[in-house]
Design a protein that fits this description.
alpha+beta; Alpha-D-Glucose-1,6-Bisphosphate, Chain A, domain 4; globular
Length: 108
Amino acid sequence: MTKEITIVFPHTLGQEEARLRVVDALERVRTNFAQSVVTSGVTWTDHHADVVVGALGQDVQAQIDVEPDKVRVSVTLPWLFERLSGRIIDKITQVGRGMLQIGSGGRG
C-alpha cells in the first residue's frame, strides 16, 4: 500500500529560474540528509525531475514538474512512511514556498 501526495506551488519567477531553484533545493536536501539517507538520485528531463530517496529499505519516489507559473511535486510514500505523511507534507511545503518566493535571496 502506498500514499500519494501532490502539492502545487504557484510562482512568478519564470520557468528557468524556478527550475534552477528546485535544482539547488534538491542538492541542499541531499547534502543535509546524506547521513540518514541510504540512497538518492535525481534524473532531469527538460523541466521534469524523477527523484528517488531510499531509507530504511524503502524507496520514496517523487516527480517534480516545473511549469512557467507553478511547480508540481508528487510524492509516492511506501506504507512504512504513511504515518509520517503530515510531517513530510509540512516539510515539502516549507521548502517549496521558501525557494520560490521572490526576494528569498534567490538560489543558494
